[in-house]
Model the fold of this input.
Amino acid sequence: MNSGFANGIIIYFAINPKIIGFITIMQQDDASGDYYERFAWKELLERVDGDEELLREVVAIFLEDTPGLLDALKQGIDAGVPEAVAKAAHTLKGSSANLAANRLRHQAQQLELQAKSGDLASSVVLYQALETEFSALRNHLNQYLAT
Done:
């Protein structure tokens, strides 16, 4: 058995001098078998050159904007408009990538590609996965902002 591996989840600690033990969780993507970090703390901190104030601003903007993107996705899915779904998914993919929210980025990319093909058959399932992932990510990020 691989050290740190249990039930498809690998947990390790990304250590920041101010926030010791912030957990990054890697989960297996069911379709590809690949692992994607929920939140790559170290990568994001490097992107802002260790500027904690800037990081807090970026996180706050992400948390403020993402629910609107999820609403746009849901509306596009409900209306059966692949173009609207693809546009909202693309925007969510970009904002997630900027935040180093790799699992959410990957899921948004899957939904974007599906919508661009014009097929929304499994979009509800993909959307639910996005919602679940964002909820978990939001909890982690709110914990960070509370420190």
User: Anything to note?
Assistant: Helices lie at 41-47, 52-79, 82-98, 102-116, 123-145. The longest strand covers residues 22-28. The chain has one domain: 5-145. Residues 52-79 form the longest helix (28 residues).
